[in-house]
Amino acid sequence: MKTIQNSIQGALKNTTCMAGLALLATIASAGSAEAISFKITRGIANPTTGATNQGSYSDFAGTKGTTTIDFNDGFAAAGAKSVVAAKDNQGNALVTYHFDGANGMATKSGRTGVYADVWAPAGWETDATPESSKPVDYVKDSLGNIIGESVRNTSNYLAVFQSSMVKITFGQTMNYFGINWGAISGGNTFSFFRNGQAVKTFTTADVNPVAPLRASWQNGGEGSGFLHFYSDNSNDIFDEIRITQAGGGGFETDNHSFHSGTGAFDFERELKDVPEPGVVFGLMAMGGLFVAQRNKRKAAKLA
């Protein structure tokens, strides 16, 4: 499997960010000091290769303290019940995925598991003249100008279906979790836990209205985006995530990123610390303008 840790390569060296930031939502447990905030962005291309047909990656992918699991390159064999996806510097399990279904992890569509199909979360690429003839695929800036289009994800991703759960456990407490979430559909649910106690639960209703990407090949335009969930203080750090699906359909996610920590994750400061030159922040921010390098696949077509 491929794990991206502490390196910035490829497309990140040749991209430019001209954008402001906008907080789209803050989620807090009523009557408590606990809060988990989230921002939704378009994400960036694969930070190692620059590929845009593998879904969107976290704007923090490859930065210090952040581990990214993209489910590619042999994540696990069919039937796996527990998969250590990343280890710490001492060789101990850092990120472990647990599949609780009777048959473990599937590698074919329609069951909880890891595989590639049409429902993989969409990525995007810049293009002032999109190839798609369907406006729902177009990515626009705050002025309504077309700046790109959604791109079909042909890589492996994680799907969870009704009557099963995928649990992610950590060898250290985490204060940031990022996912490429989509095709967003009803019943998508995931929850943060610490020491077995729930910190916060999120559902489709929290995210779908502000999804920055739409894909015509997924029920005519289901949403996708990169979700950044982060702790506002030490009360809401977490050591476990549970992903479930209520009712029909599936919960599709890709390119999970985690940041270890024992206190708040300062989104603005961490964003400033991302190495330059050249970091694409595919941010869905009011008044923002985002410029990224077109991927090699499209460049080859024009050659």
Describe this structure in a few short sentences.
The chain is built from 3 helices and 20 strands.
Low-confidence stretches: 6-33, 276-303
Number of helices: 3
Cα end-to-end separation: 32 Å
Give the strand content.
35-45%
Class per helix and strand makeup: mainly beta
How do the strands and helices of this protein lay out in sequence?
Layout: E1 3-5, E2 16-18, E3 25-28, E4 35-41, E5 66-69, E6 82-87, E7 93-99, E8 113-115, E9 123-126, E10 138-140, E11 146-151, E12 157-161, E13 165-181, E14 188-194, E15 197-203, H1 204-207, E16 213-215, E17 222-231, E18 238-245, E19 250-260, H2 267-272, E20 289-291, H3 296-302
Antiparallel strand pairs: 1-5, 2-20, 3-4, 4-17, 5-19, 6-7, 7-13, 8-12, 9-11, 10-11, 12-19, 13-17, 13-18, 13-19, 14-15, 14-18, 16-17
Descriptive report:
With 303 residues, this protein is mainly β. It has one domain (3-302). It is 6% helix and 40% strand. It has helices spanning 204-207, 267-272, 296-302, and strands at 3-5, 16-18, 25-28, 35-41, 66-69, 82-87, 93-99, 113-115, 123-126, 138-140, 146-151, 157-161, 165-181, 188-194, 197-203, 213-215, 222-231, 238-245, 250-260, 289-291. The strands form three sheets. The protein has a 15-stranded antiparallel sheet that branches. The protein has a three-stranded antiparallel sheet with strand order 9-11-10, with no helix packed on it. A two-stranded antiparallel sheet has the order 2-20. A hairpin with a 6-residue loop joins β3 and β4. It is globular and about 50 Å long.
